Description:
By secondary structure, the chain is an alpha+beta fold. Helix content is 23%, strand content 20%. The protein has a 10-stranded mixed β-sheet. The chain has a 5-stranded mixed β-sheet with strand order 3-14-13-12-11. The protein has a two-stranded antiparallel sheet with strand order 4-17. Strand 9 and strand 10 (382-390) form a beta hairpin. The longest helix has 28 residues, at 133-160. The protein starts with 66 loop residues before the first helix and ends with a strand.
Amino acid sequence: xxxxxxxxxxxxxxxxxxxxxxxxxxxxxxxxxxxxxxxxxxxxxxxxxxxxxxxxxxxxxxxxxxxxxxxxxxxxxxxxxxxxxxxxxxxxxxxxxxxxxxxxxxxxxxxxxxxxxxxxxxxxxxxxxxxxxxxxxxxxxxxxxxxxxxxxxxxxxxxxxxxxxxxxxxxxxxxxxxxxxxxxxxxxxxxxxxxxxxxxxxxxxxxxxxxxxxxxxxxxxxxxxxxxxxxxxxxxxxxxxxxxxxxxxxxxxxxxxxxxxxxxxxxxxxxxxxxxxxxxxxxxxxxxxxxxxxxxxxxxxxxxxxxxxxxxxxxxxxxxxxxxxxxxxxxxxxxxxxxxxxxxxxxxxxxxxxxxxxxxxxxxxxxxxxxxxxxxxxxxxxxxxxxxxxxxxxxxxxxxxxxxxxxxxxxxxxxxxxxxxxxxxxxxxxxxxxxxxxxxxxxxxxxxxxxxxxxxxxxxxxxxxxxxxxxxxxxxxxxxxxxxxxxxxxxxxxxxxxxxxxxxxxxxxxxxxxxxxxxxxxxxxxxxxxxxxxxxxxxxxxxxxxxxxxxxxxxxxxxxxxxxxxxxxxxxxxxxxxxxxx
Length: 582
């Protein structure tokens, strides 16, 4: 066999390495070139020496790591040392790594992309930041760029409307009531189960009608955007939003055992149209014996009108912004109250009923409203009584017709994409279709309230701001009338499904023990939750006093953006009279 001559290997008995020569210095290795500087094996390795135990260990005290292991890692890490990089500095300045791997067409696998900054580190964790400070800064920059890209992608997705499920990701929705830890959650009901319910009720009967109604002014039907009318402020008329158990008439009917379930049209319409709701709401339900009382909580915003609740692009979540969801709800409630009183013939003539307004004091000027206490038969042993409202009356051919008056409000055409002043005369159907898309829940609730009150006509007013940045002054651009049943069919509101939802909830609570419960719409999911709460819950909630009319001074035009809407919210709260504002 052919042998390999490896030469003579000197033996060093005194230590490690080649022995010293007799002339001093290390012995030279034969057949090896001398005085040749070390060259790296490749540009990416930058090898210089095996270990340097003289370096400062700046990353020695990493939290959650072994100190000795960190010292070893730092001694063998020369990423920050450029002592041996001078020879290839000129070449490295123009050198770039390129990913030449074949791209996979399998979109179902999320393979990691090639990154030339990655270096082998046996102790590396993906969640661990790079060791060098400059790489840490660069990593944070990359994370910030990814976050900006995610926000831009979400914004474009919201604008295009291609994904309705993810369009609400950027909006922050809060629960309408603070869930306390001692509350016991009994059940969760998804909205998908509501769509399958159906129940038919016979025609209701009127037990009592209270209050007084003024006649509708037919001249409002001729209003056009070119011949608009300024929305007035009614300073002296009081509006009442009284909850169920505080209503003296309902208390009297309950003592007379006229029914087993008691509610108001606002609460019933909220339940009936629950699958269309997006914002959170809550209803307090008390079971006393064989009776159920559906109430509004102290401080609840159930009487405020939502704006753009079902739109593709959510409103800003800043309370001080005049276009935030809360500020627009207060503004919409004011517009709705003012419009319901302005569209009347104010000549003193009024239709009175069996009893006066049960919430007004003697001699107090109140808004035009009639309360119809109606009873529906749910089964042989169960009846439901609800207080329903109508705002006006018409008399023609010795026949009396009840009307409900509500107002849609335009705050900025840029949000809806349709300018009412340009489209109401020529494309009224397009304007209504846009409102049905952006305010599906509000319009469905108005229709349900008109059906509950058996109103013959529901009038919708189109009210817009004088200027998009002025939320105090408004004009009426048009008024359109619809028959409630026809409008319900147009917006796909099924009466049997509405009553099916109410009947299922009533049956559910009838099986529970006596006590107090809260039905809460989940702020982020299409479902409702049922909580059992203590008997004294919500009794100590603080509610601000309504702001007096003389204190509601309109600010200068240049400062309209910063006006607080907090005091206005109390004018549409649950209990007691509320002063009117625009």
